[in-house]
Structure formats: structure tokens, C-alpha cells
Design goal:
intramolecular oxidoreductase activity, interconverting aldoses and ketoses; alpha/beta; Fucose_isomerase_N/cen_sf; about 260 residues
């Protein structure tokens, strides 16, 4: 109970739990501590390897069997956990450091997706059923979807002046990022720059972590441009962008970025 209370008091700074077994350990205490703390974070179980010259009763550690028991208890308690490539491994080894590096990435992904806000601009076009998703299921995982009408973005582009400093700066950035843009008519270059500014402003106002946008054929019919270059530049600047209202694609891109 004391350990669980300690975890509970520091839940705001705990991204994951590392269980390490230098000996057989206390299987019930490990599972009880995680459950009673109320933490909902990744758990990694590690066990020390025995020294071959210290296998007698007085010195044998038996972390090997202890890990089996701890994992069994966690499974009974319905507490998700992960293990390393090897069942037992010295903590000073390269293999253990690789396991921990992977576990830290898992913690970043789980922590980042919990409370993530995904933006969806526009609606799914009829032929693209591959991008269907359940907003309710995402909400159960702590992921919110914030929507915007594509028409609102188009209206924002129309209202934005070509002489705006933000637009000029974005046009310059686009030209440096994706040369050559000379074959593209100047007015369309300007439209892409404005679109990028409007979307980015919407992202900041709504605290969006990643987004997706309707493209074909609405974007071409209304603006005579494709958003690909602007989306690519945003992704390069750590604002993941997915095509055709593919919300799950945006979630996946954000998870990759976190990892």
C-alpha cells in the first residue's frame, strides 16, 4: 500500500513502470502495487540473470522463475505489460539498454496519444471507405477529433491578403522546401501559401497535434491546387498531416513521431 500510495502521489511525472527482479521477488506485491496505484501507464518486466558459479541455494537468485510469476500475476490482474528480447539479461548489457530504449518509446507514444487532439478538415468522399473510423472508440483511448468544414478554410484563404507578412514568409519557405515551383502559376503558389497559413492558424487555435484534410476533388474544384506541398512542409515541422480525412492515418503518423 505504501508503494502504491507513493506512485499515486507522483502519477503526474510517471510515464511508465519498470519492474526489475534481481531475485525471485514478490509476484503479488508487484501486481498489487500497480493495481492499487491506479496508474494506467506501460509496464516493463525485467529479470537479472543468474551467475553460473553461484547457483547453490544460498546464492541463487532465480529471477528467471520470478519473472514468469510476476507476468502471470499481471495477466491475471488484466494489467498490460511488455518484456525484452531475452528473458533474463544483465542491466549493464547492451541488450538491456536496447530494451529500455524501446520501452521509453512505448511510454512516449502511450503518453502522447492519451489526450491527443486530431484535426479533421472536410468530410470523407464516398469512394474512400478505407478511411472510415469510430470517433467514439478513439475517445475511449483519450484521443479527441476536432473538425472543421473545408469551406471555412477556403473562406479563410479568400480573406487573407497576398501582402500579409505571414503569407510572404510561407511562400518563401515553400519555394525553399520544394524547388522548383516555377512551373506552377504564381497565383496558385500564392493560394498554397495562404492555405498553409490558414490551416496552421486553425491548428494553433484548436491545439491540434496532427491533422488530415479532404483533397480530391473538392480542393481542385474550389482552389485549382493540391495541398501536398503545404502538408509535407508541416509534417517536416512536426505537424503530421494525412490525406483525405484519414484520421487513423494522422493518429499513426503522430504515434511514429512520438516514438
Amino acid at each position: 500500500k505504501k508503494c502504491a500510495a507513493l506512485f499515486d502521489r507522483h502519477r503526474g511525472v510517471i510515464d511508465g513502470v519498470l519492474v526489475t527482479l534481481p531475485n525471485f521477488g514478490d509476484e503479488r506485491a508487484v501486481a498489487d502495487t500497480v493495481r492499487m496505484s491506479g496508474l494506467n501507464v506501460p509496464v516493463f518486466v525485467h529479470a537479472f540473470s543468474d551467475d553460473l558459479d553461484k547457483m547453490r541455494i544460498g546464492k541463487r537468485r532465480d529471477g528467471f522463475c520470478g519473472k514468469l510469476s510476476v507476468c502471470n500475476n499481471l495477466m491475471q490482474y488484466d494489467i498490460p505489460y511488455s518484456v525484452g528480447e531475452l528473458h533474463v539479461v544483465p542491466p549493464q548489457s547492451d541488450e538491456f539498454m536496447e530494451d529500455i530504449s524501446q520501452f521509453l518509446a512505448v511510454c512516449r507514444v502511450v503518453g502522447g496519444l492519451s489526450g491527443a487532439r486530431i484535426g479533421c478538415i472536410g468530410s470523407r468522399v464516398a469512394p474512400f471507405k478505407t478511411v472510415r473510423y469510430s470517433e467514439k472508440l478513439l475517445e475511449e483511448s483519450g484521443i479527441s477529433v476536432e473538425t472543421a468544414d473545408l469551406q471555412d478554410i477556403i473562406l479563410g484563404i479568400d480573406k487573407l491578403s497576398s501582402s500579409s507578412k505571414k503569407v510572404k514568409s510561407r511562400l518563401s519557405a515553400l519555394k525553399k522546401y520544394a524547388p522548383p515551383m516555377e512551373p506552377i502559376p504564381a497565383k496558385h503558389q500564392m493560394t498554397i501559401a495562404k492555405m498553409s497559413v490558414v490551416i496552421e492558424q486553425w491548428i494553433k487555435e484548436n491545439d491540434i497535434d496532427a491533422y488530415t484534410i479532404q483533397c480530391w476533388p473538392a480542393m481542385q474544384d474550389a482552389l485549382s491546387v493540391f495541398p501536398c506541398t503545404a502538408m509535407s512542409l508541416m509534417s517536416q515541422n512536426l505537424i503530421p498531416a494525412a490525406c483525405e480525412t484519414d484520421v487513423m492515418g494522422a493518429v499513426s503518423m503522430y504515434a511514429i513521431q512520438l516514438g
